[in-house]
Write a structure and sequence with these properties.
The structure holds 2 protein chains of 2 kinds. By secondary structure, chain A is an alpha+beta fold. Chain A is built from 20 helices and 27 strands. Chain B contains 6 helices and 5 strands. The chains are: A alpha+beta, B alpha+beta. The structure holds FE2/S2 (inorganic) cluster (2 copies). One FE2/S2 (inorganic) cluster sits at the interface of chains B and A.
């Protein structure tokens, strides 16, 4: 038990008291924040034990509905040997030095399928330290040897005598010894009893009784509500306006023009008066541009054709362009369709020097940055609070309503909550940018891949908003535009590159990011090539994948779906994404998808049922992207009059979706939130091509013509 | 106007500046019942579903004066302790992801089951087809409705 290292600097900070200004390295220079919200005695930054023996666990991730709070707490509870019913999960304060995600350069961002992945080691370490503290203390109290003890069922057991001390008894006896822990002290995976099970979420009852409170449900006391009237077309500015009708609306308490002239905020005592007031404004906007989806597509195509365009090289030398015969693939802009409206509230603090913001958010750090810039104050004078989010899907990372709330609260000199109605966000908000790809590949005489040329043109979300987050050897790679492009197949001669084409709609993060279309282009090109060469798409993939875990996943999904049966129209797709190996098979009858099988290996399974639910949800997104979704622009504006103009796959149309997990005990968990999306898009297209004999070069797949000419259900069974 | 109606079994009177305020905002902003959610405000997503005189209705499309004298049930009134068969099924099947759409989904399902104790799979799909779950919990919603139908047949009324 010697030489134990305590949980790095993070744990140390927790133990050395609170309220200090912590100057950390890297991006996060400031962390003056409230202490961790423990009521018990802190064992390190993540774990405390209350006088009654309950364990308190800090959840550093935001609650977006993906189940992160429970999953992360399960990792810690497993290490400690805690009983989940005696665990309390507390949200972390904004303190990136202690709670930042190592996968996000230590920032507090909940996104990109990196939460469990990023916090896994840290939380095991935190749990192991707590367990050893309890064991060491119990042993010293009872005259046991620590090595003879085990922590389970919320007690420390002395194995030779089969006696135990409950955590409550241990803490009751007074001073806790904290010996620290090393990686070797982490619990061996074969002793896991909690990980891989499916305990009920702590908020399950609150959700079904309507008691769970999201950002929109928590308007701060004394805050009025603001709704913005924004330009009907992209980039429009106010030329003139008349608010006399608005001021006559009952309940309207203020009107305020945003500094950049992009919007007018109407403030009301309740949501309805603000909405009505915003509608009643008479505004003349600067003229719309001629931008539309067709011209955007043409610009993306042109960027691939111009050899001069600066490209980011992902594989190869960049010297060998795709031939003119390459297949082209078009993916449209997509919008999030957030269930809960974007929302944020702001209120002056410290005699107006600082500001407190509250929001349904994916990042306290970025909220802080937005609020500090807008309020023109220092980050440590910004208080941030996250509420649960009604859906996020990447949209609440660049959470721009925080800016609006801060600006309006400052201008008005009183607290305000901003709500952005769904259609407003869909019309003018962030999009998963459209993309054009060109891909060509050839097989040699032995049936191996002879060459591979993949070119992608799109806008880049990180490039636009967070250029310091770009990766790659030259610091130019935007993973929101290149994710998925690194296919897992053996091929010596590869060229993969991305060209950034700035576009008018604001690019944003969206569940599945670029992988939804890069994997589509890759897997469809491959399957076309294999089918025309008379190769079985499964057998070929198994022969040309080096990753044994991905091969096992492919074999599993093939077994589930009955791959190889004659006369069925099946499509296959596979990928590795955020460490997770995933493969989908989709079956089509006529032009109808009626079954989806997904197998995945996401390393150690944390919460079995929530992992499956995330993958099911991803599959629904994949189907919806393959078959329905696309945001069109016309005359400088989104072509949307209502939600009905953005078709999505509904509950009533869902095929059967089966998910199977291959568990790897003890392996770092891979991503979950997005992994169901890309291979489902691709496998749907492959199945549709198998069923119809047609090639599809755009998403969503255009089936109207086929339905008209009568390729309908059952003709292909 | 003074709106007088029955809400979750209780007589309520509310003073309203605008008789055309949609019911969803009367519930949330005036009466503080935030269990009823909203997304599209256009009658197209089902997030705001409540029961009006026993029928599922989109509360964003109903003006306050239209429920004068009517009986409205919201998620808070379905059961406080989650004992309604639909709520129990939702918990057992672990349907919810973010949970935002779920009060509306649950009210929609409860309305189906109150008039149809043996819904077929097709009837379940049709009844739930207009309620969007953007998180993608749809497969579980369909399963949970079927389970709730079983539970409500087992539960003596
Ligand atoms: S909010 Fe009422 S149906 Fe969408
Ligand atoms: S659970 Fe999130 S929208 Fe349905």
């Amino acid at each position: 038990m010697t030489n134990r290292r305590k949980l790095s600097r993070r744990a140390f900070l927790a133990l050395c008291g609170t309220g200090a200004v912590v100057v950390g390295g890297g991006m996060t220079a400031w962390a003056l924040q409230a202490e961790a919200p423990f009521s018990g005695k802190a064992l390190n930054a993540f774990v405390a034990i209350t006088a009654g023996g309950d364990i308190e666990i800090i959840c550093p991730a935001q609650d977006l509905g993906q189940g992160a709070p429970l999953a992360l707490a399960m990792i810690v509870a497993e290490e400690i040997g805690a009983d989940l019913s005696k665990v309390r999960i507390l949200p972390a304060p904004r303190d990136a030095a202690r709670y930042g995600n190592p996968e996000f350069s230590g920032r507090m961002v909940t996104a990109d399928s990196k939460t469990t992945l990023g916090y896994w080691s840290l939380l095991r370490q935190a749990g192991a330290e707590a367990r050893l503290a309890l064991i060491e203390t119990a042993a010293s109290q009872s005259g046991w040897l620590p090595d003879d003890c085990r922590a389970q069922e919320h007690s420390v057991w002395h194995m030779p005598t089969n006696t135990k001390l409950g955590f409550a008894q241990i803490i009751a006896a007074g001073h806790l010894l904290v010996p620290g822990a090393t990686v070797e002290d982490h619990k061996p995976a074969d002793q896991f009893t909690l990980l891989g099970t499916s305990p009920q979420r702590p908020d399950a009852l609150d959700i079904v009784t309507g008691r769970k409170r999201f950002g929109t449900d928590q308007r701060p006391v004394g805050a009025d509500l603001a709704v913005l009237r924004r330009s009907p077309h992209l980039g429009g500015k106010i030329v003139s306006f008349d608010d006399s009708k608005t001021r006559a609306v009952g309940g309207v308490t203020g009107v305020c023009v945003l500094r950049d002239q992009s919007a007018i905020a109407v403030i009301g005592r309740d949501t309805w008066s603000a909405i009505r007031g915003a509608k009643a404004l008479e505004v003349v906007w600067s003229p719309a541009s001629a931008f539309d989806s067709e011209s955007e597509r043409t610009a993306l195509e042109a960027a691939l054709d111009e050899s001069e365009t600066e490209a980011v090289i992902l594989r190869g030398s960049g010297q060998r362009p795709a031939p003119d015969t390459a297949s082209r693939f078009y993916a449209p802009s997509l919008t999030h369709v957030l269930p809960e409206p974007l929302n944020a509230s702001a209120e002056a603090q410290s005699i107006g020097l600082g500001v407190a913001v509250q929001s349904a958010t994916q990042s306290l750090d970025l909220d802080m940055r937005y609020a500090a810039q807008t309020w023109k104050t220092a980050p440590f004078l910004v208080e941030t609070r996250g509420t649960p989010s009604g859906g996020a899907y990447g949209r609440r990372v660049l959470n721009d309503t925080v800016r609006e709330a801060a600006e309006i609260a400052k201008t008005l000199g009183r607290p305000v909550q901003v709500i952005r109605p769904q259609l407003d966000e869909m019309t003018r908000g962030q999009v998963r940018p459209a993309a054009v790809q060109r891909l060509s590949a050839q097989l040699d005489a032995r049936g191996d891949l002879k060459n591979w040329r993949h070119e992608i043109a799109s806008d880049g979300t990180l490039t636009t908003h967070l250029p310091s987050s770009l990766k790659g050897s030259n610091g130019t790679e935007d993973n929101t535009a290149t994710d998925g492009a690194y296919h897992p197949y053996i091929c010596a001669d590869q060229e993969v590159r991305w060209v950034r084409v700035a576009s008018l709609p604001t690019p944003g993060f969206l569940r599945g990011v670029s992988a939804s279309y890069t994997v589509w282009a890759i897997e469809v090109t491959l399957e076309r090539l294999l089918r025309s060469a008379g190769q079985d798409p499964l057998a070929w993939r198994l022969r040309h994948i080096e990753d044994a875990r991905l091969a096992a996943v492919l074999q599993r999904v093939a077994d589930m779906s009955g791959w190889g049966d004659q006369g069925r129209s099946l499509g296959l797709a596979a990928m590795i994404f955020r460490g997770t190996r995933v493969a989908s098979v989709v079956e089509v009858t006529g032009t109808k998808v009626h079954h989806v099988w997904i197998a995945l290996d996401a390393g150690q399974v944390i919460h079995h049922d929530q992992l499956v639910a995330q993958v099911e949800g991803g599959a629904v997104w994949g189907l919806s992207q393959a078959l329905r979704e696309g945001l069109k622009y016309r005359e400088g504006a989104a072509d949307l009059a209502s939600l009905a103009d953005y078709p999505m796959l509904g509950n009533g149309e869902l095929p059967t979706i089966e998910v199977s997990l291959i568990e790897q005990a003890g392996q770092t968990p891979g991503g979950a939130g997005e992994v169901g999306v890309p291979t489902t898009v691709a496998a749907t297209c492959n199945a549709m091509e198998a069923a119809t004999g047609r090639r599809f070069d755009a998403l969503p797949l255009d089936l109207r013509h086929l339905q008209q000419v009568g390729i309908l259900c059952n003709e292909h069974t | 106007m003074e709106l007088s109606f029955t809400l979750n079994g209780e007589q309520r009177k509310v003073a309203l500046a605008d008789p055309e305020m949609p019911l969803v905002f009367v519930l949330r902003d005036i009466l503080g019942l935030t269990g009823t959610k909203y997304s599209c405000l256009q009658g197209m997503c089902g997030a705001c579903t409540v029961h009006v005189d026993g029928q599922a209705a989109r509360s964003c499309q109903i003006m306050a004066h239209e429920v004068a004298g009517a009986s409205v049930t919201t998620i808070e009134g379905l059961s406080e302790d989650g004992s309604h068969p639909v709520q129990r099924a939702w918990v057992e099947v672990q349907v919810a992801q973010c949970g935002w759409c779920q009060p509306g989904q649950i009210m929609q399902a409860a309305s189906l089951l109150s008039s149809n104790h043996h819904p077929s799979e097709r009837e379940i799909r049709d009844a739930m087809g207009g309620n969007i779950c953007r998180c993608g919990s749809g497969p579980r919603i369909l399963r949970a409705v079927a389970k709730a139908a079983n539970l409500s047949r087992e539960t003596p009324k």
